[in-house]
Queue: 4 jobs
Job 1
Amino acid sequence: MSFPHLLEPLDLGFTQLKNRVLMGSMHTGLEEEKGGFEKLAAFYKERALGGVGLIVTGGISPNFRGRLAPHASQLSFSWQVKKHKIVTDAVHDGGGKICMQILHAGRYGYHPFSQAPSKIKSPITPFTPSAMSARQVRGTIKDYASSAALAKKAGYDGVEVMGSEGYLINQFVSSRTNKRDDEWGGDFAKRARFPVEIVNAIREKVGQDFIIIFRLSMLDLVDNGSTWDEVVQLAKWLEESGVSIINTGIGWHEARVPTISTSVPRGAFSWVTEKLKSEVNLPLIATNRINTPEIGESIIASGQADMVSMARPFLADPDFVNKAAANQSEMINTCIGCNQACLDHTFALKRATCLVNPRACYETEINFLPTKNKKRIAVMGAGPAGMAFSVYAATRGHEVVLFEAKSEVGGQFNLARKIPGKEEFNETIRYFINQLALHKVELRLNTRLDASVLATEKFDEVVISSGVVPRAINLPGFDSPKVVDYQQVLSGQVEIGQKVALIGAGGIGFDMAHFLCEKESSTLQPDKWLKQWGIDKSYEHAGGLTEEAEHHPGREVYLLQRKTSKIGKGLGKTTGWIHRSVLKQHQVKTMTGVSYEKFDEQGLHITIDDKPQILAVDNVVLCAGQESNRTLLEEMKATGLPVHLIGGVDVAAELDAKRAIRQGAELAMAL
């Protein structure tokens, strides 16, 4: 067995988990959709069949005021049990176990009825909560216990009490948000009384043969957060109260430190779980940016934790555990931590899915059934769209020939993976290469598909996924060899000087600024990354924060845009602030409302607010968008064969691998 520690059973006394892998809590949006619990059942069952040891649902509120949003899910009444049983029956039918997460949003509630220990507004929500009365505090504790009892009635194997990420329980525990002077506030023992009473009440209601996981905030990453001594003391009190397992919580949602995005090193926070290991006798779960069986095995084998939690990796690949058990980790569709289709969707109140796996949360809607009409299909371009279509179409039984003019597959991913913090894109390329081979897609590298090929070989359909080309700008001096595009820079075709102006402040401009400023990726150096973001690994400061390390940018970079709107406005909702922070760390100078005039030996001539100025730069890099690469489109259409466009060649907006891969999947279903 390649991963003996990861795949070893875990005995909890009254029940046994078949391995050490937890599918962590994720809100999918299906919880609120009409007929969503049937879809949720299919989603979780597929993961249960995929071998995961224990599943935890997205957060379910114990009462109305605890909802995350006005129509978010809660479990408070007997009539609500029936729909939850659809999910638990499906998971048990798939051979799995499942816990329901109980989550009270507190001041993070996105509605005017939110409550918190004190009347203090959150910086990330528009509503100011009302302060709970002592009676309401006691009532909320009862609501947690009642919700857990209903969960047991619905067939759940346990509950996870959400005590981290800055939600209600965290708000009671921390002096940052708890300013009460009654029995629920003041010294730490009083602030911690709330979670302890919740666990006591739940255990009394559900008995001893029911899993209680407590998601403990081990590292708040906010000012005036918990001290390490407080974390340890609360863990010990929770153990005495009858918790079965303690899960690691990292960072409040309002923290200005990235915790799960792709730029976070793999397993970057397992050290804090290890720090608690000697303090309690309960199984501990390590979490955050654990996305391969190798990382999970290392964490458990080294004694840092007893289990590992992976949430989004199970969006990317429901068969993660089975593939690991079969020693086929190279076949796992690895989560790249991009947030684009999961968290960004959730915060936009859309159904979550996955950039690299568009079937995630669409298990009842996107399926690649065997075709009754086998076709021979020519595909032009082996970027994300072309590779995805080829694999999915071949899965259905079509004969697919994939043409790529370059010497390697990957398209724009080959450029993206060179950006510091985006090394995970290598994994997607690796996955598709293995899938192309598995499904016997004929791959022709260094071969351009044109009409002559179609004239000599018989094909039934043509799919064009030839991607994009950088948009050129026609201005005086822009024909200089010192004015280049982002593809030339990332592919190593040109040398760049120490002073650089970037034209275009979308995602490509941000990536280029990061690439030019950071010579060595801190993502690949965990200790350096922790210092970069001011994380105190020694935990001498409350909340685990210290001063950020000083940065010495490799270049002087200007990031320019024509628009007068905020730089980076169009970036991902959950990652945009990270990209802006990185540029600030590297002292990138940003300018908006820029008119470009010319480039000459003096530098780049621009105008802002009718005031001309010259940026004395060595190079200008064009990051001002791209155009569809439709060079051979008319030639393809002239063959008379059905022609389909997917990916960037269809729509050349900001590079969008999520749309490209999904288009490939949808077309493969349709043909």
Job 2
Amino acid sequence: MMGHARKTTPEGGQGGVQTWTGNRGLMLEEPLLFEKGAVDRCGVDLPDVPEVKSRLGGLERHRPIDLPGLSEPDMVRHYTRLSRQNYGIDLGIFPLGSCTMKHNPRLNEKMARLPGFADIHPLQPVDSVQGALELIDTLAHWLKMLTGMPEVAMSPKAGAHGELCGMLAIRAALEARGDSRKVVLVPESAHGTNPATAAFCGYAVENIPADARGRVDLAALKARLGPDVAAVMITNPNTCGLFEPDMIAIGEAVHAAGAFVYCDGANFNAIVGRVRPGDLGIDAMHINLHKTFSTPHGGGGPGSGPVVFSAALAPFAPLPFVLKQGDKYALIEEREALASADHNQSFGRMVAFHGQMGMFVRALSYILSHGNDGLRQVAEDAVLNANYVLASLKDVFTASFADSGPCMHEALFSDDFLDGTGLSTIDLAKAMIDEGFHPMTMYFPLVVHGAMLVEPTETESKASMDELIGALRSLARRMLADPDAYRAAPYLSPRRRLDETAAARKPVLTWREPVLAVAAE
């Protein structure tokens, strides 16, 4: 791309001086690999390939593979430069609400890299992985203790996968008693995966409204319960960052109607060590190990979403599970091996193997290093930090449900304070990039117009939160004083504002060499 300067800021914009390279100081411009390399060269010298008889059965390639040839320095520099344009928890506070993007202690990473855990294979003989099975069983024990539930399935690979596991157990329990209920109730304040999971299991989904406090409308829920309702899927603390104070009453009403309570436990970090979900009448709940017990967020994997079950659902928990037999641990993978009445109606397998071993190691390391008092402090600090953000911004931002008392682990705002400026949540989010922050969760939950959901997490210091709060307060004042200056933000990022809708709906997935226009003579 020599000779083609890439403008990253408009003339006269906040970005200042333009550069011929497109670089901005040490933030280096980086083209695609296909633009850097050439298909007719290679970074290493290879001998000519001798003629041999093909063994591909007519599936030979008949045209060049068209991969760019680059040297080792080219490759290293390419990915290093790209990494500098990324944002992660190791760079700064990550205020995404409903995601709990917190620091991952390096001790956990060190434990997960121990050869006895990092190098094992799921098809090894059980006798050769006794330590790994003991670790899974130990983690399962602590998950049951922390939730007050008698059974746990360790194999689900993520939160939504855990939801599926819990709902399949509920369906199996209903079928076992000859009950063909077809409706699942989902409150407005639940996570968006909840209705999707219910629909995937074949249920019709009906909405339950929130009341003026941002909680489940208990009267509306009770009015809808009936013999056709299989379950209620509820998130607690909910997506508005609020605890459901009627949880016990909800459980009693649902059980009286012959249905089950599924709880989305994604926000368990707000109550861990403080509240046991089993005491609230919950029948099944998944736990996102990355959100509560600080395993990495995987970026699409590896995740882990163990599911805890009440006594009513324990017999229907999935295979496989670890069972201690004398001094050894067995991995129960077949129905025929089920000797315990607690598992004799398992709905089957969720996955090919046993779960995410690396995530189990990290989560147990986190739990044991914190202890009972430390895990309690996790919840207390998460709630303290979120309320500090709420109290520090509510005079300049519009705080949703401001009259509902303290929030839990995340603070929810709307863009109502920008009324009359022509600006909205998206403009604030883009301006945050210029300030060096990843934006908070935007436009979610849907029950709040222009929602901005901020979760500082328990691992952030007061100093880091003060920096974020100061930037947001400053942005609010500047956007109200000069709205036109923020309609095209960000100005300082490697790329300017994109058409995100078009990018999502019409993604360009294959690179094509641009055709250069030839000027007419």
Job 3
Amino acid sequence: MNDRISAQRAADSLEKPVSEAANLAHKLGLDPYRVNYWIVDYDEMNELIAYDGFQTRYPHWRWGMKYDRQQKQNQFLGGKAFEIVNNDDPSHAFLQESNSLADQKAVITHVEAHADFFAHNQWFGLFTGGGTPDAAAMLARHADAIAAFMRDPDIEREAVESWIDTIQCLETNIDRHRAFESASAEDAPRIEDDDIADRLDELDLGADVVSEVFDDDWLEAQREDEPSGAIPPEPEPDLLAFLFRHGMAYDEEREKAVEMEEWQRTVLELLRREAYYFAAQRMTKVMNEGWAAYWESMMMGEETFAGTDEFLSYADHQARVLASPGLNPYKLGKELWEYIENSVNRREVCERLLRVEGITWRNFHDVVDFETVAAALAPDPVIDRIAGDGLAAFDPDDPRVDGEVLAAAENGEIDVDRYPWKLLTYEGMAERHYSLAKPQNSGFLQRTSREELERISRYLFDDSRYGTVDEALADVEYAAGWDRLFEIRESHNDVTFLDEFLSQEFVDDNDYFTYEYTQATGDYRATSTDYEDVKKKLLLQFTNFGKPTITVQDGNYNNRNELLLAHHYNGVMLDVEQARQTLERVFDLWGRPVNLKTIVKELDDHDLEVAKRREREPDPDERGKLIRYDGESFTVEDLPWSEVEGIAATDVDYDTKPDEWLA
């Protein structure tokens, strides 16, 4: 009873912040799913984290393991669960009851931005086909179905759990770039030519009847259109779908492949569907977390959604999140969103200034007074310092001002001192928070390179000119940066986001670099600050969720019903031990021998010894290998380069060691 009363009090105290955070998000141009907030205690939060943000999942030991890991992380490493939100409509967010009010407000603003990203990013729309997600209900149905199999007296619970273990090891082997389709919805295979002849023979029809019903032209057309019979006809990235359609279960007692039981196929398809649902979150981790951190900072700090007595607590909250060690998606994402906003705004300003009489890309840095420009770009004091006693300065017809709210504020219905942003439209908010007017970005415009200025000038198709700098800056679109951010959040995933927008300027500003393990010295060393090298390393972390890209090549390899998989080599070798363990799992779903071709780097012992003496990195040889598992043992054989050159990337190499290391 006391727990329920405490939770209700916490919920009541957050009702106003939840409502106002949603209002503020819309003022800033966000358009999130409606969010339902739930107050949970410490144990419930750990359980939700273990369940990937949902209250119901299928029964399996993995959830208990994740729960135990989360508890130990909190207990021994000082971790703290601030929030968890799921991609659903409405979204559901869970707030830990013991968090401070400052933490809860930070979570709420963060969640509103997540819900906006869920609602508008096309990679999340792939799963639903553009429809409305109902993930909680879907996962609950899956849980009920799998629980029913476990209760079935004719099915061993251990067999179901073992089957789930096998599928989970392969859950990233889907076609993440395609919309989800049921594996059972594929077109039925066409009948082979000899099958047509066999069927006609079975009908025992006379030649005259055959010629009457099946004319020669039609039969010939079937032969011309008939595929080669290869399964699959093209490399198939969705391994789970292929195994659903063509795989068999290995029966250890009978020591042979048998048809999958109906429950096995059902569980395989249910977990494949869940893998597609969670794929978008894995594909947009940097974008999504950076997006939420960006808008949370805007709302909590710049719009003082955190009260005066809460700000220091909030600052500590965000500092801990952004300072997390390793590859931090919150920090990387937030910095890159801010850089893009600054870059777009800078281009907008440069386009205006380059139309001023007497200013060209050649003399730009000599004739432009950047302090004067900065002062001119600063937001109008009327909208920058809003106060209840200054309402007379606002024009209800000003596009930056919300006329209805102004009237309500004049009638005393709105506390403008506490919620000044209510008085502004999107245009007003964009000017109020214009990035190039912020102190931390004071040198960004002046840093514009001559190359960029020349490029901008080359594409100035508008012939209109300005007589003065002030006239040019008066036409600056304050919302240009935000408008571009909203466009990007709709279409990109982490790989395309980093590939398109990470630049040398960004790398230099934020001190990114690469490092490599050196064979010569046996340690790690910083290797490069070149943005192309940094980009390579980052893309390695996010392409295919950071996992090796595997495709199905042949379902009848060497005409023996063996499965041939291919690792698409990008300069990074497979972990051979993990590859073997994975092949064992694939064998369970194929029922027959499984083969994997890949490329490995091999170092000659003599070359390695020479490299160590000279403190130079050896240059390894790349060789094709075929790993085969027959259910009992592994074999590894060399493949001629001609058989693996099709899986070797010719223009991608994630090794960023300087050339002199390889001399």
Job 4
Amino acid sequence: MSNTAKVEAKNTRFAKFIKGIEVVGNKLPHPFTLFVGLAVTVLILSFVLAKMGVSVTYLAASKNPGEAPKETVVAITNLLSYDGMRPFMENFVKTYVQFAPLGLIMTMMLGIGMVEQTGLINAFMRKTILGAPSYMVTAVLAIVGINANLASDAGMIFTAAIGGAIFKALGRNPKVGIVSGFAAASGGFTANFLIAGTDALLAGITESVATGSGIAAPTHPLINWYFMIAATFVVTFLTTVVTEKFTVKFLGDSSDAVDKSILKEHTVTEQESKGLRNTGIAAVLYILLIVMMTVPEGSFFRNADGNILPKSTFTKSVVPILFFFFLIVGVSYGKTVGVIKGEADIPKLMQKGLAGCLSFLVVALPAAMFIDLFNQSNLTTVLAVKGATLLKSLNLGGIPLIIMFIMLASFVNLFMISGSSKWLILGPIFVPMFAMLGLSPAVTQLAYRIGDSSTNIISPLSYYIPVVIGLMDQYKTDENEKNGIGTVISLLMPYSLAYLVGFTLLLIGWYFLKFPIGPGTSIFM
């Protein structure tokens, strides 16, 4: 991409807005310092609000289907007390070590490091899609990211990491791959070709609310499936358009140069071709092994009921399955091309893959403490309930109610990132409210999911913002380059807005056309 085109791209009104978000966000302290400051702020707020006696009362859904919602009172917890600080100090190391993204990102980067450091990804990309239209590469990455939520949150890390590696191998800007992969995986929580654990979890809560409220309507895990299949194509399209029309131009990309001048220079050598053949054989054998351990009845990866979806040992083991896949194919390729000469070379290559995570490991410490304190203070619950009460008081109906509920879920999601926790609070309020207006629990759940998934990627409290910062730091070309929270949120904002608008318009169209949103499930009661 020419410098002139890049300058023109950054001079558009929307680009200036996004750049403004980045500038303001990056004027904040280093993420480490910022999370320390946020943790201190939560401690002070918890003390003040607890002394003021702030609390909320609401009907909380049960996670067990058939159980009626129960009235629950939640008060702000004073963390600046013996009872608040003793658990914090006692569990300090545990809180850090059990920080959700920590093990995921380290495991994934160890595996991806093998295929990247041996040159396998580079050779494979040059052999297959080097010279293909850039939008095709982005679209494929988007589809992978959307359906990666079968691995729950792990899919967000995997797609971001592999997106950076693939774009780098193609001579493109790896930051574009990180951003687009991460965004697609987030949007995938309301889009998928298959049924994931999220569907079963949310449907279980919906069923308990509907049963307890005497609402006779389908609440099985497939109630949003038809919509999710259609949404997969919508998210793929939106991700590709935003990436190629905005992110590429905003960050700069060298895809044009690759297409025109580096194709011949990057022709795969005979030794590399042999390595790819051996790697292909190893990959097929590994996949066959996984199939043999998954498909037959009573096999290892099935659950106790003999099923694979929506939840089983297979779905819970996606990360280790991918890790061993990357390890096996990486070693196979490395041995063939001579990069791996002995067993000692394997941990050295894995170590190089992990080196890029060092900045994340540092930031993860205060991030883990802040999120733990924020949750323990009950500030998240109070915010969610207050917002729901406000919306209920507006007495809206039909499309306006659906849109406002989506907006509420989007806003609450910025502060309370656990999807099931929010639905445990919002479900008992809005499922009966929607039902009184003739709208099914399925469409209530769907509207909630749209708001929840659209703003996941721009929540400053997200576990994975530090992960994205760490991945971007891994591909720094200038030591003075600053990748902060402002950088990440500004780059992800266009995707968040596109998903929010796209999902909402799709649901409105579904509403007027009266399409079923799942097997045996209608929008209307």
